[in-house]
Specification:
Blueprint: H1 3-24, H2 31-47, H3 54-72, H4 81-111, H5 119-128, H6 136-158, H7 165-189, H8 194-219, E1 231-232, E2 235-236, H9 255-264, H10 271-295, H11 302-310, H12 319-336, H13 344-349, E3 351-354, H14 357-360, E4 371-374, H15 383-392, H16 395-398, H17 402-405, H18 410-417, H19 430-446, H20 453-477, H21 483-494, H22 498-510, H23 517-537, H24 542-550, H25 557-564
């Protein structure tokens, strides 16, 4: 038999085995509807680019409601368990999207009068979608009239300032979005249609300058009633301050929206319960820190021991080698104990790149996935910045986070989610994503993966950080902590370098993450840990549990639990699983 033919037979067998294996965990009956909804959603997002408009809100309200109507026509009782799970997930997704769309729409309605008189611009953008030839002279006149009228419009708006900076910011975003869409429409015709260019070039240029000025004005046109003091004697104002002096401007969503977000993520606990659990975990970490501190000869001064560990950093240029070594150490540790099936291709395809100095301002520690992005100082940084970066990314801190980012953490998750039920990526949630990676930090801790007091301190440092994330993120979104207080907490309670703490808080509130993202690490980890205990009690092995999780896709962990335990899934499924809030 030729080598080529032998390879073909081997490849065919592997492909066939994978196909048969995939059949047992394949897509449900809702696969096509979920894919169709996703395609519909993105098709409309690409067309309706005027996000801050009645047209946009109306069209997406119709989309969510029409899909809910379609779901109501499905025979739920006739679905398989996997189909029922996907039905509940899609219905929950539609309810959540519509709920937050309507909140956003209500805010837009409060500021839409700032767009009065600009309808010709909206009309120009809408007609351009299909290439309608504009009436050049009339459009040029309209743009000129709008430009001239802005001085009066600003005076009108000054007399009616918004009573909250977030409403003012919404108005600013609406004008900026309109300006961007007008420019895109202008570029469509400009130079391709000589008559358009002749009439429109100057009016458009003047309009863009005026829109930019108007947007800046609107963003500052508010009176929140707090004057120069964001705090009242009896506590924090019920209104969020724009900037507490830290320079970090986020958008707290309030306790009601936090509770709804938790419900849509299938988390039955209230914010105060999560904060209490985080404090209890924090106390455990402090007790373990004291043990390690004593081993290193620092007695009860665990922060001195932490300083010792920070100074174990490696010189510039040597960090990639440390990351590579730690990655393979985790893989070998896991495979020796047969804890999870790691595909050879997953081990082969991860790679590295270095993080830019600009990105390190919001991501002071490395990021991961198929590519692990290493955060370490460059020659462009000040001496203090270099030292904080090296100290904050020392090998003992990294012991807990390299496997979080690569295998069996995020890279493993992304690798498997793209191969098993990838249509469920629509239901992405941070409790599954970050919870799984955090769960492995705890699992490896319990298996004595850290074998020196320095490594234990490194892992405890990050565990304390996850606890702090729950406390400061929830408190911030409920207007009980300011960004500066969050920074101070990370520095004083966790032991962060100040610049790293500032970057972490900036990333949390201005980095594009959802309001539940930072609390999802520890909370999701607790869910996975509790679910593993339940499955082991039913006779499963750890490997069976871990492999099964990786074949169900990115879904809320309570739904995953119902699938693995083969529990009945009802049409009106709501969160009720009050999982254990400790890692014992």
């Amino acid at each position: 038999m030729s080598m080529k033919f032998s390879f073909f037979i081997t490849l065919s067998f592997v492909t066939f085995s994978n196909f048969v294996f995939g059949q047992s965990t394949g897509a449900s009956e809702l696969y096509e509807p979920i894919e169709q909804y996703s395609a519909d959603y993105w098709a409309l997002q690409r067309k309706y680019t005027l996000k801050y408009s009645d047209e946009y809100y109306s069209r997406f309200t119709d989309l969510f409601q029409s899909w809910q109507n379609q779901l109501s026509q499905i025979d739920f009782d006739g679905l398989s368990q996997q189909g029922k799970a996907d039905f509940v997930l899609l219905n929950n997704h539609l309810e959540k999207e519509n709920y937050f769309l309507q909140i956003d729409y209500e805010q837009f309605k409060r500021v839409k009068h700032s767009l009065d008189g600009l309808e010709p611009l909206f009309d120009f953008v809408r007609k351009r979608r299909r290439g309608s030839v504009p009436e050049y002279e009339q459009l040029a006149k309209q743009m000129s009239q709008i430009t001239v009228g802005f001085s009066d419009k600003k005076e009108e708006m000054k007399a009616l300032p918004y009573n909250d900076w977030m409403d003012a910011d919404k108005a600013r975003l609406a004008i900026e979005s309109l300006a961007e869409n007008v420019k895109e429409a202008f570029d469509f015709y400009n130079a391709y249609d000589p008559m358009f260019t002749w009439w429109m070039e100057k009016p458009h240029q003047q309009l863009q300058e005026t829109l930019k000025d108007y947007a800046g004005f609107l963003g500052e046109n508010y009176d929140d009633g707090m004057g120069s003091a964001e705090f009242l004697e009896e506590g924090y104002s019920t209104k969020a301050a724009k900037d507490d002096g830290s320079g970090i401007v986020g958008k707290p969503i309030g306790e009601e929206a936090i509770i709804k977000s938790l419900e849509y993520s299938f988390i039955p606990y209230k914010p105060d319960e999560l904060i209490k659990a985080a404090e209890e975990q924090f106390q455990y970490c402090e007790a373990e820190m004291l043990k390690a501190s004593r081993e290193l000869g620092y007695g009860t001064d665990w922060k001195a021991a932490l300083e010792h560990v920070k100074n174990t950093y490696v010189p510039p240029g040597q960090q990639p080698a440390i990351i590579d070594s730690l990655a393979w150490e985790a893989v070998h540790f896991i495979e020796e104990r047969d804890l999870i099936t790691i595909p050879e291709l997953a081990k082969e395809t991860w790679r590295m790149k270095m993080m830019s100095p600009e990105r390190q301002l919001v991501s002071p520690f490395f990021l991961g996935g198929e590519t692990i992005i290493i955060s370490y100082p460059t020659n462009t940084m000040t001496h203090d910045q270099k030292m904080m970066s090296m100290r904050g990314n020392n090998p003992n801190f990294s012991t807990a986070t390299v496997h979080h980012e690569l295998i069996p953490g995020h890279h493993m998750q992304m690798f498997m989610a793209s191969r098993y039920k990838p249509y469920r990526n629509l239901f992405y949630n941070p409790f599954w994503m970050e919870g799984w990676a955090l769960y492995w930090e705890i699992n490896l801790w319990n298996l004595d993966f850290p074998d020196t007091p320095e490594e234990r301190i490194g892992m405890l440092f990050w565990r304390m950080h996850r606890c702090a994330r729950i406390i400061f993120s929830l408190s911030y979104h409920m207007n009980k902590m300011t960004p500066q207080e969050c920074i101070d907490m990370l520095v004083n309670r966790v032991g962060h370098e100040y610049a790293n703490a500032e970057a972490e808080v900036r990333r949390s509130f201005t980095g594009g993450y959802g309001p539940l993202y930072q609390l999802a690490y520890m909370t999701g980890g607790l869910q996975f840990y509790a679910l593993k205990k339940e499955m082991l009690a039913e006779g499963w092995t750890e490997k069976q549990f871990h492999d099964a999780v990786m074949r169900e896709g990115n879904i809320p962990i309570e739904i995953l639990r119902a699938i693995l335990k083969k529990e009945e899934i009802k049409k009106n499924f709501k969160t009720k699983w009050r999982f254990s809030m400790d890692f014992e």
